[in-house]
């Protein structure tokens, strides 16, 4: 019994259940619950930048062949594009078959003030700006802002520079290895309060949005959850079988990170833990350091499924018949806009709004219908994103001969 009570997985599950109960029956607790959740996510995000930086630098500096770094990055981007395209096609197909938007009558009061914020953010979102933004004008500012892509870019350059120093750079590598261990030790300390963070996130979600909010959009939510379930246990499972590793063993290995994402509704809360767990699972430090951070912007499988299904859902709500050519066009646009979504709660709305603005077929104001239930669907998005990025890392590691399964 004592071992069960001290098990992190059990603690997080218990915390999520308590969060649901508190959210249902103690609604005034919502502001405090939100504060608890925000503090926990801040504790995690505080460690993300240095952990990513040291992991990537040490991984690249440890590679004798610098061409391998480019090859790993190229393979990762190709894999991301292929798998997220599958995710988009599956989302569009299921939405067309289930038709969750037909006969829909909205009983949810739209929050137009939030809608204006998303519309403004979407209007400022451009693909060219996104690419230019990858290069930081100030490396320290990138760390201060916690911008994953900018930190990734700077760390790759730093790693290349360090690798060219040869033996004289060993002092720096030894120092970085020690500093990396310090930050991972800090993460282990922070993870001890993960149940509290999961409790706060779930209590805030339930008390703020309520179970009744789900009723008008129950079919869409069910469709999204089922589609993501099928994507994980069919598409990703096939990929796992092709590369000869067990999806179940992998999921069991990262179960604590999945539960933390469920409680906090943020895939970033699992990023440091995922990097460490994937190294323990058998992936090399260099592959983990390159693939996981890049995946948080380029391999958001859950987000792409949600976006594709939401667009078709809104077309059905507004009785706008979309031809096959239009749907293929939407998939093409989403292949680009979905890459700009960050792995945090709310970013899906910005991308969805920008996509509707780009296709000019479905009223942009329609996203207001989804505002009430977005928080409930963000858990599924974030979990699918995290699982998909882990599978991508193992696949790339195996294809590069950089995977050594742990001893039984």
Topology:
Blueprint: H1 2-5, H2 8-25, H3 30-61, H4 66-98, H5 112-123, H6 127-133, H7 139-145, H8 148-163, H9 170-191, H10 194-209, H11 218-242, H12 247-253, H13 255-264, H14 271-281, H15 285-298, H16 301-317, H17 324-337, H18 347-359, H19 374-399
User: What overall geometry do the principal axes of the alpha carbons give?
Assistant: globular
| CA-CA gap between termini | 26 Å
Estimate the strand proportion.
under 5%
In CATH, the homologous superfamily goes by the name Sodium:dicarboxylate symporter
- What class would the helix/strand composition place it in? mainly alpha
> At CATH's second level, what is the architecture?
Orthogonal Bundle
What is the average per-residue confidence, as pLDDT, rounded to a whole number?
80
Order of helices and strands: HHHHHHHHHHHHHHHHHHH
Give me the CATH fold name. Proton glutamate symport protein
**Main CATH class:** Mainly Alpha
